[in-house]
Structures are given as C-alpha cells and as structure tokens.
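Structure (tokenized):
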C-alpha cells in the first residue's frame, strides 16, 4: 500500500524513471509542493520516501480531447449506419434527455476509467451548456469540472462556444457570442485559484460556431494567454461545407479569420490537404488526434506522419470514449498508418529524433498533450507538475521487454501493455490518484451506482 504522509516534500524511488525523453535506471524524483524539483539518486533525509521497487515511473497521460457525456452512448450508438445517423439518431436524442445528474454520472465514469489506465490530466471539450428548461450558463460546466476533481484528475475545461444549428438537440449547446464570452470569463474567474483547473475557449467547429464566435474565442485565448481548440476537417463533407460558406478549405478559412496561430489546436484534422498541413506547421499550431473514435465513426485516417515530419505537435484524445485509454490511442495511431502504408514503424520513422523507438507515440499521449492544453504536465522535469504513474514491471503484458529497460520497455508500454493491470499507482501534484490499482478518492461502487441511476436515458 502506497500512502502519502506529507506532500510538501517527497522522494519517489523507482527501478526506472522516464525523464529527458529516456529511461534512467535506479534513480528517483524529488517533488516539492506538488512539482518536480529534481531527478536524482540522492534522497534528501527530510523528504518522505515512496519506494517503487519493481516499477517504472513515467509521466501521466494527457487526454487532450474528450466529451465525457458521450460515454453514455456505449452499447447504444456503436452500430449506427454512418456518422450522420450516429449524430441524428443517437447523439442528439441523448442530449435532449440529459440533466445535470446524468452529466456528472457520465463524467465520473469516464474520468474513473481514464485514471485507472494512467491518465492524470484531461481536456474536457464541454458543450451541453443548457438544461431542458433553457439557458444554463456555467452550471453544467462547473459540475463536470468538479467531477474530475472528485476523481482526482487535473482538468482543462475546453469551454465550447457554439451558436449555430437549428436541430432540437443543438438548443442544448447554443449561446450568443456575448453569452459565450461572459460565461467563459466567469468560469475562468471561478477556478482561478485552483492550480489543477484551467479554462480554455473552444469554438466548436466551422459548422457549430459562426465567424464572430471563432474570432471571439481567438481573442479570449490571447487575453488568457492560452491555447484554444476547434474541431476541423473531421468528415470529408466538412470540406464542401467550408468552401460553400467561406470560399476556402477549412484551415485556410480559419486563417482568413485571423484565428490560426501557435495558440490554435485543431481537433481531428483528418481531411487537411497538403497546403493546410504546411500552413499548420508554419503557424505553429497543434493537433488533437482521436484515432479510435475516428475509426469507430468511419471518419478516415489523418496524415499524421506528414504532420510529424513537419514538426507539428500531435496530441491524443479519446473523444467519444468507446475506450478511455491513451495507450490504446498511441498504438491505434501507429497501426492505422501501418495498414494504410503497408509498412511498419511509420510514425516513429517520420520523427527526426525517434531513435527507432515508440518515443513519438508515447509523447503524443504525454508531453504533446501538455502542450495542447497549455499545462506543465506530460514530462518529468524540474518545474513540471508531479503528475506521475508507476508501472508494474512484472505485469505479464510487459514481459519480456520490461526486463531490459530502455527502448524495449518503452516499446512494450506502447505496443503491448494492458494499462488497466500494469498501472499500479498514480499521483497528481504528488497526491494519490490510484493506489494499488484502485481509485484513491472514490469507490467504483459509487461510480456504478451513479451510472445505474441514469441508465434509462
């Protein structure tokens, strides 16, 4: 049993520590006041020692894009005829029935699953702002943030700004530009004192947010000095829509609005053409990629190797949440490319400094996620938050790669590890999130009970 007696100064000692983009044997991490102070083999006498013999210590995964309420569609929406049927026949009918209790139950379920598979930070792209009775302001967003904090996760609320659409379900999302700006500011002020919560503006998409809304979101991102996220080029039909509405392909349309910069994080980006991929790299933007959801919805396969070769930071997310495991997303990102190219090692081969290892894939689920959310997470380095995960080196899904350490261990983690059994402990800012494979802050029975109460939706 791992216990934390004090959390102002801790020393985590492990067989391997992943720092400076590689595994270091027989060393440890000194943590002071929730942040990494040093990677060192010298344990200070005044620090609480947390002995992780038989474990590797790695940065927690960063889920850069999720809509937690969509976890309630598991089993119901998995065999829709196509994307449009999934949206109109499953997603919107669910949305029309959601209340705050259901939103919190779904979020708690999703966040609990994420934590148990090694995620410590999440980007919640949240847009069910209004209740059945009408305008909801910030209530639902705040309740979803509180669900993440009860589980113990760090959360970046990607507060969606949405003003288009006439379908009944979309009434739950819509606000005016002024309302969206005011509500996003209110949430940022509400959570300003919590170091484990961040609020980011997120115009939904070209079809969900007007140009005025997108420009307002970009202005807020500049004001807050933070990234902003937007769905872009997910479906092939998004191209024709953009040309018809804006006279340009999706990313060029965004650029003409003055909304493409190093703050911009595109979500999906599957149908970006070569000129758009070059433009994204030139502007310094990033991508939040969701391979398993893109597979499930028949969206297509993004040209990730080209983006990686151009130096675009690609992060990973679980989006519709059929699975809630970033290690699954890492391997899916690579395997989609392998079946498309009929070759192996595609994304590692596209990276200039991968050393022939799974490093680029691992960083998509860790360091690049931190960059996409604008958080000091996803790396074990001085100044970063001590969001740490202890991997059991004896877990059968890691053998024999875990015996050697180095690239063999990293490759085994990315390509074969069953995270739900190999993740034994985790911490957010040095405070327990998972202990001995169980949630530290709530019971799974409580999670099950909450979901059963809303399952009729």
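Design, position by position:
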């Amino acid at each position: 049993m791992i216990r934390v007696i004090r959390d102002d100064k801790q020393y985590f000692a492990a067989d391997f520590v992943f720092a400076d983009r590689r595994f270091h044997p027989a060393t440890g991490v000194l943590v002071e006041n929730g942040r990494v102070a040093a990677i060192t083999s010298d344990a200070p006498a005044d620090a609480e020692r947390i002995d992780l013999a038989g474990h590797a210590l790695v940065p927690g995964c960063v889920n850069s894009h999720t809509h937690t309420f969509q976890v309630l569609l598991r089993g119901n929406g998995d065999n829709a005829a196509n994307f449009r049927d999934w949206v109109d026949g499953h997603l919107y009918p669910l949305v029309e029935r959601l209340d705050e209790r259901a939103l919190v139950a779904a979020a708690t379920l999703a966040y609990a699953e994420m934590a148990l598979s090694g995620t410590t930070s999440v980007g919640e792209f949240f847009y069910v702002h209004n209740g059945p009775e009408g305008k909801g302001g910030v209530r639902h967003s705040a309740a979803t943030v509180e669900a993440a904090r009860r589980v113990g996760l760090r959360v970046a609320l990607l507060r969606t700004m949405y003003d288009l659409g006439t379908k009944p379900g979309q009434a739950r999302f819509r606000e005016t530009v002024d309302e969206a700006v005011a509500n996003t500011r209110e949430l940022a002020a509400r959570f300003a004192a919590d170091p484990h919560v961040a609020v980011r503006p997120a115009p939904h998409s070209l079809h969900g947010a007007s140009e005025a809304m997108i420009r307002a979101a970009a202005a807020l991102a500049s004001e807050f000095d933070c990234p902003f996220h937007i769905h872009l080029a997910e479906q092939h039909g998004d191209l024709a829509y953009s040309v018809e509405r804006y006279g340009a392909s999706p990313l060029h349309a965004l650029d003409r609005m003055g909304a493409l910069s190093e703050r911009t994080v595109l979500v999906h980006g599957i149908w970006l053409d070569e000129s758009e991929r070059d433009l994204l790299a030139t502007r310094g933007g990033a991508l939040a990629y969701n391979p398993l959801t893109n597979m499930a919805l028949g969206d297509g396969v993004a040209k990730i190797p080209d983006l990686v070769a151009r130096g675009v930071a690609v992060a990973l997310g679980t989006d519709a949440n059929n699975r809630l495991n970033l290690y699954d997303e890492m391997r899916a990102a690579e395997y989609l490319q392998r079946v498309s190219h009929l070759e192996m090692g595609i994304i590692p081969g596209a990276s200039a400094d991968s050393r022939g290892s799974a490093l680029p894939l691992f960083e998509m689920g860790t360091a690049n996620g931190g960059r996409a959310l604008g958080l000091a997470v996803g790396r074990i380095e001085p100044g970063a938050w001590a969001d740490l995960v202890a991997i059991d080196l004896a877990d059968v899904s890691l053998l024999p790669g875990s015996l050697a350490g180095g690239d063999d261990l990293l490759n085994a983690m990315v390509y074969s590890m069953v995270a739900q059994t190999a993740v034994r402990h985790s911490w957010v800012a040095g405070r327990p999130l998972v202990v001995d494979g169980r949630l530290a802050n709530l019971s799974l029975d409580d999670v099950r009970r909450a979901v059963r109460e809303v399952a009729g939706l």
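Reviewer-requested clarification: The two ends are 39 Å apart (CA to CA). The chain has a mean pLDDT of 96.
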